[in-house]
Queue: 2 jobs
Job 1
Amino acid sequence: MEIRNSTEKDFKRIMEIYKYARHFMAEHGNPNQWGPTNWPPDALIHEDIAAQNSYVCICDGRIVGTFFFQYGEDMEPTYRVIEDGGWRDDSAYGVIHRLAGDGSVKGIGEFCIGWAFEKCGHLRVDTHGDNFVMQNLLEKSGFTHCGTIYVEEDSYPRLAYEKMS
């Protein structure tokens, strides 16, 4: 597998993957994270692509996964307030959002997270309380649960995780 920046030519395929992911999450006990709002919206993905924060995972010449990745100092506003715990390190960090695969290849999530961690050595990720698939992936990948954060998209709390070198 390999990872590269997304382009506008990838947009349709990215949205197909998100459609699959919404269905997969609903079937696995997580219908509220992306389903009710048809998340993520087209405009956000176009913004991510333009800002070069959208990535695709390719296997055998085919896009099989996608995610958002960005690295910097205090760049995720929703991470500034954390309840029931705290972040372990205040240094610059990478953030992964909207990680999804098309179900055709095992290990996409682990591969994408590993790629991002190699880029920065300090990652923060959040996920819905009903997203047990993602929670298991994060714990398997060496993340520590740090507390609870809230996002603007909905009123559901998110479990906040962090991994450092």
Job 2
Amino acid sequence: MAKKIPMRQCIGCSEMKSKKEMLRVLKRAEGDIVLDATGKMNGRGAYLCFSKECLKRAIKTKGLERSFQMKIPSEIYDSLNREFEEKYDR
């Protein structure tokens, strides 16, 4: 029997992809929001494609705010943008 592949929905484009093809954005218990490269950190996760467009769309449609059920300050979006550009912009 084939192993089941965990699928997640991008909060930017709403496409379903396998967990390994996506970037996890994490809200930790302390309330801070970070990119989780390992996908194993503790906390509430939301997923994004490895594309700047999806991040922009998630910001515009308030995808992160819906996922984490909280207001997200613009500084967090700015730091996510910077971190995304440094590590994942392809």
